[in-house]
User: Which sequence fits this backbone?
């Protein structure tokens, strides 16, 4: 009897400690997608989806995605706002030689800095565009906010980017071309972004509609305030009607909430994941 009581006390103590660790600040991020073509539907934005998945895998909490047109003042205001409330701000698009590539200008304005011709980027652009004319359109990529940092690689014996990520304070500017953004982020994410958290996620699939599991979910939401529950209905799937995700920064909390939900809903309503 004493042994069982002790186990329960230790278990409760561990969960409180685990919950407490979840209460520690999670590193946050915001994404600003820049481009009139996105707002007009001419181009589908795949960059924010890619970044959202990657940031989540790194233990970073993405809190907002904003899409802004090619307007210097609008981008400036959004960058300034995001930089003040999120740990990391990632921009996508607006880097290039044409009139509508205004990201560097807008970010410089957001931090009250001038655009300057970076000597290293000058050499890179001259070589790439085969020119010595600093007024050549392609040289626009060499003019960046004055205190910008250039990151070419992750510091390991890996691939060095031909053109670096340009960042200033907590704002990291990525190209809008998906292939270039994926390559740049994938090669540099380890050195640009840090988090001491990890998200632990489990999923349960049900062959009943959402309304049938509301009571169980509401009970768990109150019982596990540091666990995030998501309910996602599927209208035409042949096997399941609702997918529920259980997630937190504490593996034990996620497991316990998952196991509890499995007991609150009759087993015949739970779909074997192998059947999906």
Assistant:
């Amino acid at each position: 009897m004493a042994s069982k009581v002790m186990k329960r006390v230790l278990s409760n103590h561990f969960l409180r400690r685990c919950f407490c660790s979840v209460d520690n600040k999670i590193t946050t991020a915001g994404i600003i997608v820049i481009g009139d073509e996105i707002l007009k539907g001419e181009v589908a934005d795949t960059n924010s989806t890619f970044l959202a998945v990657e940031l989540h895998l790194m233990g970073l909490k993405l809190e907002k995605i904003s899409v802004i047109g090619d307007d210097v003042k609008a981008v400036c205001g959004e960058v300034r706002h995001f930089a003040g409330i999120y740990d990391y701000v990632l921009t996508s698009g607006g880097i290039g030689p044409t009139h509508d590539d205004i990201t560097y200008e807008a970010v410089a304005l957001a931090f009250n800095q001038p655009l300057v011709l970076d000597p290293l980027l000058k050499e890179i652009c001259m070589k790439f565009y085969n020119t010595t004319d600093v007024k050549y359109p392609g040289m626009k990529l060499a003019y960046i906010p004055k205190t910008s940092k250039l990151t070419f690689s992750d510091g390991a014996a890996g691939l060095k980017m031909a053109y670096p990520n340009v960042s200033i304070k907590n704002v990291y500017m990525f190209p809008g071309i998906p292939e270039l953004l994926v390559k740049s982020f994938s090669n540099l994410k380890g050195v640009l972004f840090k988090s001491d958290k990890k998200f632990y996620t489990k999923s349960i699939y049900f062959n009943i509609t959402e309304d049938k599991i509301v009571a169980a979910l509401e009970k768990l939401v109150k019982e596990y305030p540091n666990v995030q529950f998501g309910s996602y209905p599927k209208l035409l799937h042949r096997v399941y009607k609702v997918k529920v995700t259980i997630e937190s920064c504490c593996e034990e909390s996620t497991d316990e909430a998952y196991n509890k939900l499995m007991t609150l809903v009759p087993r015949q309503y739970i779909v074997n994941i192998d059947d999906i």
The chain has nine helices and twelve strands. Residues 27-192 form a domain with the Molybdenum Cofactor Biosythetic Enzyme; Chain A fold (CATH 3.40.980.10). The first strand starts at residue 28 and ends at 34. Residues 2-23 form the longest helix (22 residues).
